[in-house]
Specification:
320 residues, alpha+beta, Aminopeptidase, 7-stranded mixed sheet, globular
Length: 320
């Protein structure tokens, strides 16, 4: 706990109400999942099962929370379940009192008791970055974005881009497996991942499917905004299909720019560079990692996941 901080009481999920949790998240984040939507996610998304939750009370009021998911990953040494720190929220009136630090330390203790040794988190908040650094987390991987200004182009004639349908969802899982088959990191998704994601918040209309000879071969999570196409996740069976997906996005009517992010995988960065995209090294955030046992430093964790080789993968669907 930070010097001069008031003592807070750390409690478990059973000691707080859903309405208390929702109120703190609303104050900390603005719009957030309703208790009902969160309960549905816990029921359907395997990462939320066994979720570690710790809450803080001060003067009888709930003032903060930190949670952690159990996330399957793939390393050089094989499958590895890690902790994903998420939902770090503090009531605005109780900021800078050591609440988030005390909660995160309590979550770390619970994770160690469960046998989890590696912990990851994602942040774009520099104030929070200082907190995490003080707890021992170090920079793991950055999330660059690729940007290209486009003129009027014609879409490739041998394929077509269309909106996704519910019948595509299992095929998207197969495309993701093909796209990530020799990569490391957050690539181990549960069966029926896209069905679960659509049921828990992803809008089907935001998925664009590339079809060749009547068969889905690539997809993108796409948003069009003020003359730009933003692609938050792109996966394809082959390099040819990946190039065709980008060509279709670039050929959309009234589009001036295409932005693809995050792009942590070296071969995707190379593919985009060959198409004339400019890679910006830092965009909306970064990941940090910590070995809770103290056995590995950040260089060893990066090696475990092939970060410097460009084999580490974390896509939009794996955000936590």
């Amino acid at each position: 706990m930070a010097p001069g901080a008031r003592r807070v009481e750390i409690v478990t999920r059973e000691e707080v109400t859903a309405d208390e949790i929702f109120a703190v998240k609303q104050l900390a984040f603005g719009d957030f999942l309703s208790p009902e939507a969160l309960a549905k996610r816990k029921r359907l998304d395997e990462r939320y099962r066994g979720m570690v939750e710790r809450y803080a009370r001060e003067d009888g009021r709930m003032v903060g929370q930190v949670t952690s998911l159990h996330i399957p990953t793939l390393t050089r040494e094989g499958p590895w379940t890690v902790a994903g720190i998420a939902g770090v929220a503090t009531h605005p009136a109780y900021m800078r009192r050591g609440v988030a630090r005390a909660l995160t330390e309590a979550v770390h203790e619970a994770l160690l008791a469960e046998g989890l040794d590696l912990s990851f988190l994602l942040t774009g908040n520099m104030a929070a970055y200082g907190l995490y650094h003080g707890l021992g987390y170090r920079d793991f991987a950055l999330f660059p974005r690729a940007i290209k200004r486009v003129g009027r182009k014609r879409a490739p004639p041998a394929s077509r881009l269309r909106k996704a349908r519910k019948g595509d969802l299992d095929r998207l899982d197969a495309i993701h497996r093909a796209h990530t088959r020799d990569l490391l990191g957050f690539v181990s998704r549960q069966e029926g991942f896209y069905r679960v994601w659509v049921q828990t918040g992803l809008d089907l209309k935001d998925i664009q499917v590339l079809e060749r000879d009547g068969r889905p071969v690539a997809y993108g999570l796409v948003e069009e905004r003020q003359g730009a196409v933003l692609c938050f996740e792109a996966a394809a069976r082959t390099a040819r299909d990946y190039a065709a997906l980008m060509a279709h996005l670039e050929a959309k009517p009234k589009v001036l720019r295409v932005v693809v992010y995050p792009s942590t995988v070296a071969r995707n960065q190379d593919r985009l560079a060959r198409r004339g995209y400019k890679l910006e090294p830092v965009s909306y955030g970064r990941s940090m990692a910590l070995d809770l046992t103290g056995k590995r430093d950040i260089r060893e964790i990066r090696l475990l996941y092939g970060v410097d080789e460009g084999r580490f993968c974390l896509m939009a669907g794996d955000d936590f």
